[in-house]
Amino acid sequence: MKFIKKLTTCVAVSTILLVQPVVAEESELVSKVQTCSKISDSQARLNCFDKLTDSRGVTENIADAPSSLTEEQIDDFAKDHVQKSKEDLAKEINSITLVISKLTKSVRGQWKITFENGQRWQQQDASRIKLKQGNRVILTKGALGSVYMQKENTNKRIKVKRLK
Predict the structure, then answer these.
(1) CA 5 → CA 9, 11, 65, 80, 149, distances in Å?
(2) Going by CATH, does the domain composed of 89-162 fall within 2.40.50?
(3) DSSP single-letter state for residue 59
(4) pLDDT value, residue 123
(5) How far is CA 63 from the centre of its chain?
(6) Which pTM was predicted?
(7) CA distance 139 to 157
(8) How far apart are the C-alpha atoms of 77 and 98, rounded to whole Å?
């Protein structure tokens, strides 16, 4: 019990000692700002504030920093917010059909699926579906970037996430 009391006292004292210089610097800055604000001549007041900021070491403006982004990256930024044209919608792939080459189950009973093209996917939900090596499955895009997988000629589907 004595140890905890000593530890608490030690922490409190060190906190006070660490905060004291910051508080002193802040009160000094406040008094300088108040002094500048009392100046009636606008040009002199502006000069006073400028001297304060110069002495504080103004940081460099981030907007002036050179950009390492390409024009294409800048053009593609948040492009999904723009409504797509009919041509873009026609070009967009909404589902693909693949053949399973390898299946494993995780500790939680979720499928880890490898397809013949090398893609690896993992089940995200707790739904049950019977899968075998060699099955043809359909991967379909869902809302908000989700992807669903179902066996051909069935209506049962599971939510999946691409790993590789």
Answers:
(1) 6, 10, 51, 58, 61
(2) yes
(3) P
(4) 92
(5) 21
(6) 0.49
(7) 9
(8) 31
